[in-house]
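Lab notebook, bench 4. We co-purified these components, and the gel suggests they stay together. Before we commit to crystallization screens, I want a quick structural picture of the whole thing.
Request: model the full complex, all chains together.
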Amino acid sequence: MKFAFRMAFLDAKASRGRFAFVILAIAAGVAALAGVKGFSESVRYTLFKEARTLMGADLMIRMNAIPTERESAFLNTLSQQGIDFTLVTETVSMASGGAKSPPVLSSIKAADLAKYPFYGVLEFEPRSPAMDADSVIVSDDLLFRLGLQVGSSVKVGAHEFRIVGITRKEPDRMTTGFTLGPRVLMTREGYERTGLNVYGSRATQRILLKLPATTDVEVVRSEIRDTFRRRGRVIDYTQANPTLSRNMDRAASFLSMVSLIALIVGGVGVATSIESHIRQRMDHIAIMKCLGGRSRRVMQVYAVQALMLGLAGSLIGVAMGFIAQAVFPRFLAGYFDVQIDLVLSWKPAVQGIAVGLLTTLLFTLPPLLSIASIRPALIFRRDMQEATQRHSGRLVQLLAVLVIAAGIWFIAVWMSNSVRIGSYFAAGLIVSIAVLAGIAKGALLLLRYTVRRFSARMSPVVRQGVANLYRPGAHVTAILVALGVGVMFTLTIQLLQTSLLEQLRFSAPPDSPNVFLINVTTADKDGLWELLRSQKTVMDLPAASPAVAGQLSEINGTSVDQIQLSEGEQRYFRTQFALSWSEAIPKSTEILAGSWWPADTSESLVSVEESAADALKLNVGDELQWSVQGRELSARVASIRRTDAARVGANNQFILSPVALKGFPVIYFGAIRAVPASVPDLQRIVFEKFPTVTVVNAADVLDIIQSVVDRISLTVRFLAAFSIAGGVIILASAVAGTRYRRMREVAILKTVGATRSRIVRIFSIEFLIIGLTAGLIGAALATAFSIILIDRLFHSWYAVDWIPITSSTLFTAVIAIAAGWAASFRILGQKPLEVLRQAEN
Amino acid sequence: MISVKNIVKTIETPTHRVEILKGISFEVPASQIVAITGASGSGKSTLLGLLAGLDWPTSGAIHLDGIDITQLNEDELAVLRGKKIGFVFQAYQLIPTLNALENVLLPAELSANGHHDSASVPPFERARRLLESVGLSERADHYPAQLSGGEQQRVGIARAFMMQPSILLADEPTGNLDSRNGEHVLELMLKLNREQGTTLVLVTHDHHLTERADRRIVLRDGQIVSDELL
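Here is the predicted assembly.
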């Protein structure tokens, strides 16, 4: 092995220029991967370090209902043990700046600001605004949307508040989950005055607890669990915000896959560069074989060389990845209200290096194996090749390709921590590359045929430029694949980013509701419906749907505490369901099992939605029991149904017969259809008379989702750019690799009278064709993927958007020309005689 | 000893088929110096390549010291070359990234156990002595680009003798050298050959070289037209 290392090093020293590209190709991919993994580690570290701050407490009980008397009494006994607690209520409601402006859907938080938060600091502007029951502190987007400022009045629910400050930092914001709209912070007394605190409202209650240092956390947890049971979920800070951690893991997994594309493109670069290098070293390899070197021994030299390059590239990539980490917080600005500590963790670095080395080795395999077929007799007879040798070489190459595919699969599974995700991704990537390669080859053949067919009518500059594409060692197919993959992926993200939500808007049935009314009390219902009926812009006004908040307690006589379900399905036992009733079968509903009840039934029956029935393994005839406001409610399963999800009210998990919910307190919700442009006005009119009713404009929700999708898309495209960088490196490497041939060609062209400008045009045509072809193929495949996805998801036709397709194709052409010239501009200055003499020697 | 029986070598290209050797047979006893001559395209270099096991004949058999090399695979031939055959090329064929000493050492490093005769001189020392014997001990750390044509060929000769081969094959060893250097290189080659008792087969146009051989075989159009002792 000492010999292999020495030969590899000495040979590499003489090929520094070419190997710089190999190192860069690997570095680009490893940088993306190490950046993602490193940032994920940094976030995990920060979440752990700042766990108390992010939660605002040592322990938290999250529930969907106000604590009962028993539960409140228990909390008071805890406080006698020195455990402090405070209640934080979070809900959504309308906030309005005045009669003239439409109200805005906002996230409301009510807390005792003397205690909340126990950890972390809320930062306001001004620093310490005077808060009381009549004042609020808001996020600055509320001021912007309502045209208000500090000192203005804002009405939330039934009460008018004075804005005394702007929230600048709210560290526990991420614990709440997804917030809808601008944020409003008020005192608990202020919240009471809004009238939003009605039975059945969809408010989340968080009981924050601060424990003395000597308290046994497990004992307290156990007592809380015994008291609150399934009504409340206990989370302690050491779990490091499990939902957030889980989501970060998922995001990191996905982004790792995106980075893998850049790494695979880098691998293609390694393969082409090493192949060129071995071709240039064929004489050396033949000499070594003449002198007694077996193929394996010679392969060792170049394998070691490839690994040395892979290691250098991986180390540089890890360093670049650390720099890339610093970019990610910018994409997530506004989501984290704590500073992310960027840490240099060994795990992502080791992973990056391992994956970089493995990728290098995998993609070096085909050129390495070709060493076996280099005959020592080459020294005497380079131009004579025997056909028999090629056949066995092809089989070995095919085997090498299968090994590479298996390697890509292994890396994908490892990086995603999931066999399923890794397998899907690897299969998708391999198929994409294969399709790209096939199309690229076909395109080149077609181009060659076309030029030959019409060569007499074609400009000689164009003819020469095209001919250059077929120069030995040009690796044009590999360049097209590498650039094409990057363009395809980046453009697919961009096309889907805008079209997915457009499709969501357009694919909804024309009569589907676009305005949702929630938290409608019995007192408000009739008046509200009369108001809506009087509005000409309301096109469809179905009856209000009643709901009673209830939590599942038993199935067929067995307590749900004793029923085993997966983590995800456990939510059926923790959730306060909106139990609705209906005499008639809802519209767009299909009965899958059992039958609907007669309108005048006296039995307590329930119809279960399909997904709930699957999760809870329910059949017709099963008995269900819910806890509703301390009382128990039973019903027998009469049917299992499937409903068009766009129909609000009809897709409740549990719809009961009217008699089942008689005597229980009720809250109403509705789904109506109004002229879209009139919805803000409708919100204003409803708010004036019924300020505690929340009116949600579906368009606003889609806008919020769009902004999240935009941010995600930006992050993904940032990483996808690494794969385009990889493609550019491969192009530059291939151009540099054919440097001597180009120099000879330029020398000969100059000798026969070509001017510099003509030579510039010839090379430019070559690079332009590469860029345009890669851009077009990538754009075509991106469009194809978008068509397939939109069809699969929405059964709808995707309208091709020509602007991003054109701009990405042109952009690819520009960067191809720039990269090509950057790698070859010196060639123009060489003196012809000098070059031709060197060639003869 | 070299035994060649009815060797035919045909080359197929995408456009045509060329019969380079058309049934060559001869034997070379140990330690004989044989010069193979003929016009360009007569098949001399191809024959030499087949004797070295650098290629397989289309038909026929070649035995080197009793081993039928036409039945060996690529790796087995490489091992045989490492043990038994030294080769001197017309174009020197030194590895440009290795210095003179490293080029001489190369056959030893490529072989399985590092040197042919495990009991004798270590490879590094042998390489150094060989360089000294060709008059280049002062240039041991110079690279081929820093050596003249004659100096490079002397390195090539030293390399050819590194593994103490029983057979030395030389393809136009003085073809790229001027007459003075060519003479010098020839003397060196013959001197080392005498000292080691190697069988020497050389392909050459050079009459001076032919005159120094024990036997001359003339090829024309892939066939032996003359085989005489000198």
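The mean pLDDT of chain B is 87. Worth comparing against the SEC data before the next meeting. Chain B touches chain A at residues 11-13, 18, 45-46, 49, 52, 54-55, 74-75, 78-79, 81-83, 87, 89, 93-98, 106-107, 109-111, 159, 163, 171 (CB under 8 Å).
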